[in-house]
Amino acid sequence: MRLNIAIAIATAGRRELLADTIGFLARQSRPAQELLVCPARYDDLDPACLDGFPCPTRIICGPIGSSTQRNALLDVTDADVIVFFDDDFLPAEDYLRELECLFCEQPGVVVATGDVLADGILGPGLSYQDGVKVLAGAGPNAQPPSLTPTFNGYGCNMAVRMAPVKQHHIRFDEHLPLYAWLEDVDFSRQLAPHGDIVKATRLRGVHLGTKRSGRSPGKRLGYSQVANRIYIMRKGNISASQAFEGNLRNVAANLLRSLRPEPWVDRRGRLLGNLLALWDWVRGRVDPERILRF
Predict the structure, then answer these.
(1) What residues contact residue 48 under an 8 Å CB cut-off, 6+ apart?
(2) What does each C-alpha distance from 134 to 154, 155, 169 come to in angstroms?
(3) What does the alpha-carbon distance between residue 37 and residue 15 come to, in Å, rounded to a whole number?
(4) How far is CA 110 from CA 102, 116, 148, 218, in A?
(5) Under CATH, what is the fold of the domain 5-207?
(6) How far apart are CA 148 and CA 74, in angstroms?
């Protein structure tokens, strides 16, 4: 069975890196049927980087924000499966081939996320060259097929079966603005009643975790870390204990590390945003969209 697979990238503020990523995507041993790119701003994409790509490409216009941009990508595709890659995610060359096998052999899977061999989001970030080296060093895909149930897809590489998305009108929540912290969790949990969410060991890649971003630094991101969890909890897509534990973890990390912050993280800005969100929660005014007024 041959699936129609679309690659979708919502991007902001990473013009040069995006060009590198698109060049790397051209190496897929099983090409996609379509590459869709939604830049936050006109200058976030050099159209020349799409020249010669081994499948049709489209540039999609959408309002700034991860959720709104991803919804714009959902709206234009007729694919059987759409795979969302971050603009700093490098998939192994067999990623789409393995993805097709998975979705053909496992009709109950609605969301699949891969094995991230290295994740720069946990540190200062990886360069493009670092990511390429990690994948080269990993060698051929020798892992036996293995699917593990997981709570949500990881937004940097998240493949979605489109039939239930269309049937149940599932969308990324646009009340989570800009970076849209945890929009992948919320979207996955909307799909959870309609099938399985899995992590697949044979879907491999590297997330560069590039820190230069056009979305939400410092105070904005810190506010979102707390406010978005509370909002998603109230929707019923995470539990109260998940919201409490996640918020406690973020606030504690920002508090402790604000004493000696890493050069690549605005810890004090994040802590201020955390405290503002907690204060708004106490007053009954917490709102993820407040960051648009900062």
Answers:
(1) none
(2) 19, 20, 38
(3) 12
(4) 11, 19, 13, 34
(5) Spore Coat Polysaccharide Biosynthesis Protein SpsA; Chain A (3.90.550)
(6) 26
d(C-alpha 211, C-alpha 264), whole Å: 7
**Whole-number CA gyration radius for the chain:** 19
Query: How far apart, in whole angstroms, are the C-alpha atoms of residue 242 and residue 273?
Result: 20
**pLDDT (tens digit, 9 = 90+) per residue, 113-162?**
999 999 999 899 999 999 999 999 999 998 788 899 999 999 999 999 99
Q: Which residue has the tokens 């056009």?
A: 214
What DSSP letter does each residue of 1-39 carry, written as one string?
----EEEEEEE-S-HHHHHHHHHHHTT-SS--SEEEEEE
Q: Which of 127, 116, 194 is nearest to 161 (CA)?
A: 194
Q: Each residue of 188-220: pLDDT tens digit?
A: 999 999 999 999 999 999 999 987 654 457 999
Q: Which of 231, 213, 235 is nearest to 277 (CA)?
A: 231
pTM metric for this prediction: 0.95
Determine contact, residues 8/33, Cβ cutoff 8 Å. Answer: no
* Domain ranges (residues) in the chain: 5-207, 218-283
